[in-house]
Amino acid sequence: MGWLRCVLLPSVAAGATVSLSPSAQAHDDLTSPVDAALPAVDVGVAAESIGQDDGSVTPDPATTASLPGRKGTHWTIIVSPYVWGASLGGDLGLAGLQGNAHLPFGDIFKHLDLAAMGNVEFISGRWGGYIDAQHVQTSQTEQVLSLPVDLSIHTTRVAGGFYYKAWSIPLSGQTAFGVPRTVSFEPTAGLRWTDLKASANVDPLALQTSKGANWVDPFVGLRVNADLSGRWNLFVQGDAGGFGAGADISVNAVALLGYRTHLFGQRTILRAGYRFIYEDYDQEDFTGRGRFIWHMQQRGPLLGLSMFF
Questions:
Q1: Three-state DSSP class for 91?
Q2: How far is residue 99's CA from residue 104's CA, in Å, rounded to a whole number?
Q3: N or C: which end of the chain has fewer CB within 10 A?
Q4: In angstroms, rounded to a whole number, what is the distance separating the alpha carbons of residues 142 and 261?
Q5: Mean pLDDT over residues 210-218, rounded?
Q6: Cα–Cα distances in Å, from 298 out to 7, 13, 23, 113, 234?
Q7: Chain-centroid distance, C-alpha 9
Q8: From CA 262, how far away is CA 136, in angstroms rounded?
Q9: Cα distance between residue 294 and residue 304, in whole Å
Q10: What value does the mean pLDDT of the chain take?
């Protein structure tokens, strides 16, 4: 149905929440991904945790004293812009109408006006925090009862959370950024906010209306960063939320393969992977005669980079 396409387009482009938590803290030099966000990690966390957690390795003070993000020194900041090519499918209901729809990512480009996505992470010692945001605007013209209707959709999602580097397993060798390789496990918790707005303008009848819905979901999850080699890192994050506070249930999962390099003189990790989000949300809609239903899943490839400051 035409109205279904109008409501669905913005979410597909935005790639729904998360938390790329898009940010994936890949041990001491990786960024944390995609609510959830891209990997991001401080170049001092691993050396510090290895020596203090199990005593198996004691870092050389001459090597670690100047590493950023160590306890007692300054914070490390990781900036991670990214693009998520998400398709969308599921059940959508509005104003008493309900249907099942699937929209491939390729259709988004025909109607996209603006898209901005990114993640910022802050790390000090074992603790870290992140903010992951996505904003997408789309517009199109649909025929409703033989009348042209100009539709505009805005989708905004913001996820913020904290994590703690609870366990770290040392591996042999060092990363390309000069710190020991590890596999780390990081419990995380936070909030995801989703805001959907739609406006319609029917020129022949001089009619215009705007409606929307928004909600906040708490979430808990686990992040894993594994240094596969000196250059390569694998970041995986999974979390679940909602619990009836906002959505009945929301699920976010992301897996990213990262490659360490330098861009413009800064430590940088290039990222590529896959992300999945599911949200089960409904409430009484603006008509008072039905319910706004958003039982949707979004999935697709993700590309980005994480730069350390």
A1: strand
A2: 16
A3: C
A4: 47
A5: 83
A6: 14, 10, 18, 20, 22
A7: 18
A8: 30
A9: 28
A10: 73
Least confident range from 85-99, 173-187, 241-255: namely 85-99
| DSSP E strand stretches across 228-265 | 232-242, 249-263
Distances (CA, A) of 308 to 39, 43, 185, 197: 11, 9, 21, 34
Query: Pick the residue with more confidence: 209 or 32?
Result: 209
pTM comes to 0.70
Rounded distance, CA 87 to CA 108, Å?
Answer: 9
State the amino acid at position 238 in one-letter form.
G
Strand bridging mode 207-227 / 232-242: antiparallel
Interatomic CA distance for residues 69 and 42, integer angstroms:
6
- At residue 167, φ and ψ (nearest 5 deg) are -135, 140
Q: How confident is the model at residue 231 (pLDDT cuts 50, 70, 90)?
A: very high
pLDDT of the residue at 140 = 63
Phi-psi region at 248: left, alpha or beta (left = phi > 0; alpha = psi -120 to 50): alpha
> For the purposes of burial, counting CB atoms within 10 Å of the CB of 173, is it exposed (0-12), middle (13-18) or buried (19 or more)?
exposed
- Torsion from C-alpha of 58, 62, 66, 68, nearest 10 degrees: -20
Stated as kind and residue range, the H or E segment containing 230 is none
AA identity, residue 257: L
Letter for the amino acid at 114?
Answer: L
- Give the separation between CA 164 and CA 183, rounded to whole angstroms: 14
